[in-house]
Amino acid sequence: MAAPSPVRVERHGAVAVVVIDQAPVNALSKGVRDGLRDAAAALAADPGVAAVVLSGGPGRFVAGADIREMNLPPDEPFVPDVIAAFEALDKPVVAAIDGPALGGGCELALGCDLRLASPKAQVGLTETRLGIIPGAGGTQRLPRLVGIAQAIALISEGRILKARDALALGILDAVVEGDLLAAAIARAPHAPKRRLSQAPVPAGDPAREDAAAAAALKGAKGVPAIAEAVRVVRASRTTAFSDGMADERATFLKLRESEEAKALRHLFFAEREAGKVPGLDGAKARPIAQAAVIGAGTMGAGIAVALADAGLPVTLVERDGEAAAAGLARVRDLYERPVRSGRLTQAQADARLAAIGATADWQALAQADLVIEAAFEDMAVKEDIFRRLDQVAKPGAVLASNTSYLDLDAIAEATARPKDVVGLHFFAPANVMRLLEVVRGKMTAPDVLVTALALAKRMGKQPVVAGNGESFIGNRIYAAYRRHAEYLVEDGAAPQEVDAALQAYGFAMGAFAVSDLSGLDIGYAMRQRRAATRDPAERYVVVADRLVEAGRLGRKTGAGWYAYDAAGAMSVDPAVAAMIAAARAAKGITPRAFTPDQIQRRLLAVMANEGAKALEEGIALRASDIDLVFINGYGFPRLKGGPMFAADAMGLGAVLGEMEAASAAGGAGSEPAPLLVELARAGGRFADWKG
Ligand code: NAD
């Protein structure tokens, strides 16, 4: 028996209501398209129907295409044909939008004669976020409704409009406060037939259109879909509607197959997958109404801002009054920039500042439902803090540590309530960076983990759950990447060549420029601490140590891997080249040349290999989680989908070959991961690995 259609037609007198009912969001899957096509055909043939209402039911309309189907060949009926069938009806069609009308859902609404919405509606052509352009008339109908300049801005940004804003722009005809469906049924028989396909594109100001196009291309960050969207929208003025539709469709289909679009679709699903964590069934988030942060340094201040931005009152607890005051000053500084740039009004910033207090009084912690420790990265300091915290924190409070690499289980053991302890590893600057590694200790209670995931969502962050292993996911992989960047340098590449290759790949910054920005002293201190336990068979490059010993701590001292002038402009420094030459000479290395492609492949293989080790150790749950970590925390290019996705695209056989060379160059610690070897031999992919 065929599955029941997700589309049904209800009659209200002479008005037919077409109801789309496909959980969760009425995506335009094949079943929905079939149902809509059949409904349009039946309504065309029914003289008893005077008008049609399209409804997605309470709280919904149509949230867009079925993104899973985009990895399959196109399958009829196509969305443009479904929309054309409704547009061709000789009776008015009214869209009743009670929720998200995005992408193809927005295009469906644009094919209607009247668009009514509730205040809950959201409207937008969001396709460029997925590396494609609207493929069902959006680029041709929207400019006919709002003009070319506005259409370029909306489509290139993938902007989602609230009902009131969409009304102001004329995309909606009315926002109905009461019963939306009843209003739509009442108005439908009197609605005029207004086909956007037959409307002219309004005359616009060419200067405004040029400016909109320039702004879109500037914000495109290399996304090919944005340039295409601008081109196709602009062409709507000079081409017939049908030709514009054909061009749009061909461009959509071409972009849909592009590597960039595949990478962005991968990330779309990766974000949804990341929230699925085994062992949490039935666990409910604990309520968090008041937060506290211990340590108001770089991270503590940023974390306090992130919490206050999410509407939570926060108390910063420091060692003494002076440090508390300094912490609060840091918080104030953090609010200056968004006010200057206009992202926040002074009043908004003041309100958030008022939600943040600072004190040296440890008793303040007794009020908090959530405490995040962000003190020095030193086990003795953390153990002492958690021991004392145990005495004052209220029962049931979530006790979190922002540790970068210390053993979370050891920290938890300092308390009598290790179940309440979780790692919340923020990235600097904590109020800006989207990544939050949520570290699950061996005792962490399921509801504590659920609370951490809910908190991440509340703060607008991307959580990724990590196991408690040395440096968790991101820093562990980054350390391998950085080490191999140094091996490349010692073997003959200049730091600026490595950085240029990484930037050409799409990284926001190269590895050496990042080190200079973070400060070379942190890594130096860590290397000193670990010197005694380091495997002598691991290759060690001394250049970074020599830089620190020469007082070159990075940007903050005006010199590191590069030199910096007073204005902060970076330049290549012959003194660094001399240190590198000395390091090579000491090991008898004859420098050789590396092409950008060789550098990119080597470092990608190293990241994927370390990622494979994190997977087989259970530190990362799935390959796509690692991709999210690198995209949201380390400047890995979104259009490449993350290191594991990019490794799959390169082919794991090739990655293994590259890793064998990397292993020869790096010695102990750089061996190919057994999982990589296994998958490469079996012709497998990280994406399909289920643990
Ligand atoms: P920081 O030195 O800037 O700040 C630490 C603050 O903690 C100082 O203000 C200090 O006075 C305070 N402090 C120390 N002991 C305390 C105590 N017993 N009680 C109350 N306050 C105390 O350090 P940071 O860079 O903000 O790092 C803090 C933590 O965050 C560390 O665990 C670090 O590994 C981690 N972390 C840092 C980064 C980063 O990029 N800096 C990123 C992620 C995680």
Keywords:
691 residues; alpha/beta; 2-enoyl-CoA Hydratase, Chain A, domain 1; Rossmann fold; N-(1-d-carboxylethyl)-l-norvaline Dehydrogenase, domain 2; 3 domains; eight-stranded mixed β-sheet; six-stranded mixed β-sheet; 28 helices; globular; binds nicotinamide-adenine-dinucleotide
The CATH class of the largest domain, by name, is Alpha Beta
Number of domains: 3
Mean pLDDT: 96
Give the count of helical stretches.
28
CATH level-two architecture of the largest domain: Alpha-Beta Complex
Small molecules held by this entry: nicotinamide-adenine-dinucleotide
Beginning-to-end CA distance, first to last residue: 36 Å
Number of strands: 19
Strand order in space, largest sheet: 12-11-10-13-14-15-16-17
Low-confidence stretches: none
Write the CATH fold name of the largest domain: 2-enoyl-CoA Hydratase, Chain A, domain 1
Main sheet properties: 8 strands, mixed
Radius of gyration: 28 Å
Overall geometry comes to globular
Percentage of residues in strands? 5-15%
